[in-house]
Design a protein that fits this description.
27% of the residues lie in helices and 27% in strands. By secondary structure, it is an alpha+beta fold. The protein has a seven-stranded antiparallel β-sheet with strand order 1-2-11-3-4-9-10. The protein is elongated and about 85 Å long.
């Protein structure tokens, strides 16, 4: 007698061991997905809330963005880094201007950088600035394992400039990571979403 596919399925359903194995497989898949999300959003991507006005108009106080903890910082990135200097120790969010060995200076609001290992100055384009910035800064060479940072809202930013709060250069050991381009593009969505829980 030829058995139909329907009768085979019926037999499988009557087999309690097969059903238990199916439930266990489902639970293992759900647990694996959950674990992947936990690792992804605790070890790789971390959500942060901006609590300063020093990055306006790029980021406003109250904005939520994601930081990639695995990224190697590059010139122009927005980073979250720990500062032990200033009035109180805390994480700050700033734009990375100089890497170890770079020399940073400004002439009447025009920012220049001499990259490590080179001698030619490079004019740093800053399309993110919307305020006049006419400051002149003496050349500063960034020490090994440190970075030079500045806020986009130069008149209120406490950063690496000697005349603005004297955070000085900050140690790369305190780097949390770089703000992702995706979360910058969609910061209004993330701010609205996570703002519900605050």
């Amino acid at each position: 007698m030829i058995e139909s596919p329907f009768s085979e399925r019926l037999r499988e359903r009557r087999d309690p061991g097969g059903e238990t194995a199916s439930v266990l497989r489902f639970l293992v898949v759900v647990a694996a997905i959950f674990l992947c999300f936990v690792i992804l959003f605790t070890e790789i991507f971390v959500g942060v809330r901006v609590e300063q006005s020093s990055m306006e108009p790029t980021l406003y106080s109250g904005d939520y963005v994601f930081v990639n903890r695995t990224v190697k910082p590059e010139h122009g990135d927005i980073i979250v880094i720990y500062s032990e200097r200033g009035s109180d120790s805390k994480y700050v969010i700033k734009r990375l201007i100089g890497l170890p060995g770079d020399t940073v200076y400004a002439e009447e609001g025009v920012l220049y950088r001499i990259d490590a290992g080179t001698t030619e100055p490079y004019r740093v384009e800053e399309p993110y600035l919307v305020e006049d910035w006419n400051e002149t800064l003496e050349p500063t060479t960034v020490p090994e394992n440190e970075v030079y940072v500045m806020g986009d809202h130069r008149s209120v930013s406490n950063d690496s400039r000697p005349s603005h709060g004297s955070l000085g250069t900050l140690s790369l050991d305190g780097l949390l990571g770089g703000v992702t381009d995706f979360s910058l593009r969609h910061k209004d969505f993330f701010t609205g979403l996570f703002g519900i829980f605050s």
